[in-house]
Structure formats: structure tokens, C-alpha cells
Amino acid sequence: MTTVRMQPRSTGATPVPRTAADAMDTAGPQVCDDMTVEVALSVMASARTGHLLVCDNDGVCTGLLTHAQLTAVRDTPVYTDRVQLRDILVTPAPFVSPVATMAEAEHTMRYRRLDSLPVVDEHGNALGVLAR
Questions:
Q1: CA distance 94 to 118
Q2: Where in the sequence is the domain holding 79, given as residue range(s)?
Q3: Cα 34 to Cα 6, 43, 46, 54, distances in angstroms
Q4: Measuring CA to CA, which residue among 45, 54, 121, 112 is closest to residue 84?
Q5: What φ, ψ does residue 90 adopt, rounded to 5°?
Q6: Which of 93, 103, 111, 131 fits 63 for a cystine, CB–CB 3.0-4.6 Å?
Q7: Quick check: is 8 in a domain?
């Protein structure tokens, strides 16, 4: 039999709030904003993911698109196969810093009614995604 030793917990210690970096998932597929909707849907299907991070030509994250958003665009009567991702991104796109607290990130997601939120560094590079 193994003896278990219990360490007393300090009652004066305050918990450190969790940050977005602590809770984020890996960034997943990143695509360029000049990609068409049809190609993006194919990439999403092959990667078996529900979202894509969209970047500009400099690699700066410009937004996140979900499968539901892409199919909604594709199903509109004005859709053509030339529609690019940059044409349908919301500007300015919502992001969260990796040092933001989870309370701040959750507030942004609730306020904007988002299921996922990109986590970007100070240069705009995607580090990961927060998902509900």
C-alpha cells in the first residue's frame, strides 16, 4: 500500500485567471483571402474541420470563416464561382489576444454571438482558436 501525503492549501492565495492562450486549440488550416469559396469548402472538407483561418498575402490573420458561413454564401442567388474569401469577411474581424483573460474572451464571444474566435499575437499572426 502506498501512503498519500496531502499538502495543505494556502487560503490566502488568489487563483490566477486563465488566459486565451491556456484554452485555445491549435490554429488549424490557414488559407489566403484570395481563395474562392468553392476551394475553401474543399479545403475544409479535406481537413475535416468546421472553420478556416483566413490570412492576407502578408500572413496576417484577417478573420475566421465557418462551414455554415461559406455554404450560406454559396446558396445565395447572386453567388458566382469567382467570389473570394476577402469578399465575405466581416471587417473589422473579431480577435482576441493570447494574454486576454478567459472572461474577456467569453464576453467577446457572447456579445458577438460567435462559436469560435481567433487568437492572434501582436503582429496579427494566428496562434490558435477559441471554440465553445
A1: 8
A2: 20-131
A3: 58, 14, 19, 9
A4: 54
A5: -80, 130
A6: 93
A7: no
Number of other residues whose CB lies within 10 A of the CB of residue 109: 18
Is pTM beyond 0.85 here?
no
Closest CA to 30 of 55, 5, 10, 8: 55
In a domain, 11, yes or no: no
Domain count, the chain: 1
Point out which residues pair with 55 in neighbouring strands.
32, 61
For residue 37, tell me if it sits in a domain: yes
Between β-strands 30-32 and 51-55, what pairing exists: parallel, antiparallel or unpaired? parallel
Largest Cα span, the chain: 72
